[in-house]
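retry 2 of 3: previous attempt timed out while embedding nicotinamide-adenine-dinucleotide. Reduced batch size to 1 and resubmitted. Inputs unchanged:
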Amino acid sequence: MKKHIAVLAGDGIGPEITDAAIAVLKKIAEKYGHEFTFEPLLLGGCAIDACGEPLPAHTVEHCRASDSVLLGAVGGPKWDALPGDRRPEKGLLGIRKAMGLYSNIRPAKLWSALADASPLKRHLVENGVEIIVVRELTGGIYFGERGVCTDEELGETAWDTEKYSVKEIERIARIACELAEKRTKRVVSVDKANVLESSRLWRRTVHAYAEKHYPDVTVTDMLVDNAAMQIVKDPAQFDVLLTSNMFGDILSDEAAQVTGSIGMLASSSLGDTACGLYEPIHGSAPDIAGKDVANPIATILAAAMMLRDSFGMTEEYAAIERAVEKTLSDGFRTADIMSEGMKKIGCREMARRIAENL
Ligand code: NAD
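retry 2 succeeded.
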């Protein structure tokens, strides 16, 4: 199969981890007889430096024309003082919106070789944890109306708006129910319906949609504060967790931590076409950038999800998962997942070993 992949390396550790994923994809192409081409494009801080804006039109155009997009991470202290609409993160939100990617799937899986890396007590995780967070990506408070003003009584004031339509809720509910159908047929839908009007609409819509279209999927509701508590109290109770944009942003990082390291978790963003955007869930880690110590596994797994979910290459996906498992069980670790008795290696070496184990 011939596939053209747009690569948005971004900032900080972005270039290191996308290079690592490309090395693994090249090995897959060689082994399975595919032809992958990689097109580097600018996004985030590096785009601001090169052309004064975080999301150049050229990047949008070429991402849309690609078969799929691999993203590293954006942002860093260098651009922190810029106004909100010119910051690197604006580029990230912009590319998701421009590509019509409304669903973000973030599997938080505890790898058996890394059971000791979880900060939770062993009995809470020993039977395995795999929480698939299905996060709405292009609505809610990150995209709602916002502003700053000077209130006569309160002084300087700022506001953001959480807003959801039935259409937006239904399309993300469909993604969660579809996934649940292939798994345990259970969805936990997260909201704050005791306080927020938008959450009450969320709850009504998710139930009505699931009952009509996925009668064999059981949807239960959980308030976001309780969900945050349950993820550390009993993570194994969850399978598919359906959330709004902001709740999913927060809970998926918490779920990630339960599984050991943020450096292990990948995510996919999809809309109505096969062209998706695949990235690690972590940020650009400026504190370790350029040192060859970043964990590339999240990005390598993101590339694997691209093969499965955008290109239909299920065998190749499974091969990468097995190669990661083998490398970990051989005792190789990057610094973030290092434990006693294991062999510490860098980002490049980790990618080389995973590619070798394919
Ligand atoms: P971060 O995820 O970049 O880092 C948090 C901590 O985890 C740091 O100690 C970092 O060293 C470590 N870490 C992250 N990824 C790692 C990896 N692959 N291997 C080993 N250790 C890893 O979050 P942050 O520090 O809050 O944010 C840094 C920058 O990244 C900010 O500018 C933020 O806006 C941006 N950010 C970008 C994205 C994205 O591009 N999707 C997501 C989150 C944050």
